From TrEMBL:
UniProt keyword Hydrolase, yes or no: no
GO biological process: carboxylic acid metabolic process
Organism: Nocardioides agri
Residue list for modification N6-(pyridoxal phosphate)lysine: K232
Name of one Pfam family that matches: Pyridoxal_deC
Record-given protein name: Aminotransferase class V-fold PLP-dependent enzyme
Cofactors (names): pyridoxal 5'-phosphate
Keywords in alphabetical order: Aminotransferase, Lyase, Pyridoxal phosphate, Transferase
Length: 474
């Protein structure tokens, strides 16, 4: 009879591989099997520990302070810096917004100014915390436009509690001009958060390796907080990110304390209360194992892989790099001979996961690559697969969506649609076939159709789809 662990392994076989460097989104692979083992064992050892109370579990407090201290040394942090370990990038971003909002209790209807490329986590924060997000289009280089950002601030400076920039942005992999925005925000008494969730653990080493990196750390006047995920390029197990503040004063609104009930006084520095010590211990053990010289080496490897991919793509007709990458994310764009969605499917068929990104505000649909250190050994194979995938996509021609279907989708108002309408649409879109909810192997047709829908319609359709996926097995 199979054990639960046997069954777990069988279930996991359906998932994307987390090791091997062939999954170029969602996971980040150092390629260091021993380090991964140490991380897993640390997670297991602390799975039952509770990060709710650092006086009851002082080892967790020590590990958190060690991690913040290590990272502070990478981002030119002043002696006053403080920080917390959170559950992931989204929680760090949420807390940056919540803290900014609550630092200004005098502001009745707070707003924040963000570039259009800011991670969706900030729009989630706006939604959760009732902060208006003023979204400013980026410039032609896909970077935040300082003049436009500051004009948006100056349209209502008294209500503006936060300005956000990215280092780098997820979709295009470029670093915003932090030095042109943060000091100007500071001059107006407004916080500036740098979202380095995905770049925070490689950009410091990129600079050390002599690569050109625009300033983005606490060395830039006016940067008040930085988020940097351990579970991305810290190569730690999932479930950890860092949120650093320039001073304890900046962090203070992040604390939640409640004593006015009959139980223990609740005191939290992050959104969770009871939380497993596992991810923190796993992160600590991995950072201790890799160490500063290890991260430098991993960064050397990942940038070597990025450079080889960028150079290799120039030789593939029909494909190009959208914008030279500032970090470890590469954004590819196809010409009219093929479409990016088919290329993604073809790559999948060849054992490589690359991520489709829909068109947005006049920017074309693209292919996202989060390159890992472990990808370096497979770059030649990757480029061979990419060349073959583009050739197959050119041979198939761009996915054509029936013009009538396209016109219908464009005319739909998601707010006015009923559940039955959504069911019909999910069937039409190929997202549901009869009772079978599994995604089709090839997603190009579905993606091409979704690409035509408005962002609101896309959201509504995918929510309807997820809602139908998340039903109990009985
Ligand atoms: C720039 C940036 N910010 C925030 C996040 C959100 O991180 P998470 O998925 O860990 O919540 C991501 C994730 O890719 C990111 O790239």
């Amino acid at each position: 009879m199979s054990t639960p662990l046997d069954r777990l392994r069988e279930l996991q076989a359906a998932d994307l591989p987390v090791h091997g460097g062939r999954t170029l989104a969602y996971v980040y692979d150092s390629g260091l099997a021993d380090v991964d083992r140490v991380g897993r064992e640390a997670v297991a050892a602390y799975a039952g520990s509770n990060g709710l109370d650092p006086t009851a579990f002082p080892s967790l407090l020590q590990m958190e302070n060690d991690l913040v201290g290590f990272y502070a040394g990478l981002v030119d942090a002043p002696d006053t810096v403080v920080g917390s370990v959170t559950s992931g990038g989204t929680e760090s971003c949420l807390l940056a917004v919540q803290g900014a909002r609550d630092s200004r209790p005098d502001v009745e209807r707070p707003r924040m100014v963000v570039p259009s490329t800011v991670h969706a986590a900030f729009l989630k924060a706006a939604h959760y915390f009732g902060v208006e997000a003023v979204v400013v289009p980026v410039g032609p280089d896909f970077r935040a436009d300082p003049a436009a950002m500051l004009a948006a601030v100056d349209a209502d400076p008294d209500r503006t509690v936060l300005v956000v920039v990215s280092a780098p942005s997820y979709a295009h992999g470029v670093v915003d001009p932090v030095a042109e925005i943060a000091p100007a925000a500071a001059a107006r008494g407004i916080r500036c958060h740098v979202d380095a969730c995905i770049g925070g653990w490689v950009l410091p080493y990129a600079a050390r390796l002599g690569r050109e990196v625009r300033p983005w750390t606490f060395a830039v006047d006016g940067v008040t907080s930085i988020s940097a995920d351990l579970h991305k390029y810290g190569y730690t197990p999932k479930g950890t990110s860092l949120l650093l503040h320039r001073t304890p004063e900046h962090r203070k609104p992040q604390y939640f304390a409640y004593a006015d009930w009959p139980g223990y006084t609740m005191l939290n520095s992050t959104m969770q209360s009871t939380k497993s010590g596992g991810p923190l211990a796993g992160a600590w053990a991995v950072v201790q194992s890799i160490g500063d010289t290890g991260y430098e080496l991993l960064s050397r490897e990942v940038f070597e892989a990025v450079d080889a991919i960028v150079a290799g793509v120039t030789d593939i007709a029909g494909l190009s790099v959208l914008v030279p990458p500032d970090s470890t994310l590469v954004t590819l764009v196809t010409d009219a001979s093929c479409d990016p969605f088919t290329v993604c499917d073809e790559m999948g068929a060849r054992g490589w996961y690359v991520q489709p990104q829909m068109s947005y505000a006049g920017h074309p649909a693209t292919i996202h690559l989060s390159v890992s250190a472990a990808t370096l050994g497979g770059v030649a194979d990757f480029l061979t697969a990419l060349r073959a995938s583009v050739a197959a996509a050119v041979a198939a021609g761009p996915v054509a969506v029936d013009p009538d279907v396209a016109a219908f989708i464009e005319s739909l108002d998601p707010v006015a649609l009923s559940d039955a309408d959504f069911d019909g649409l999910l069937v039409a879109a190929g997202l549901i076939g009869g009772d079978d909810l599994a995604l089709p192997d090839r997603m190009a047709e579905v993606n091409a159709m979704l690409d035509l829908a408005s962002p609101r319609m896309r959201e509504a359709l995918l929510v309807a789809f997820l809602d139908r996926l998340q039903r109990p097995n009985r």
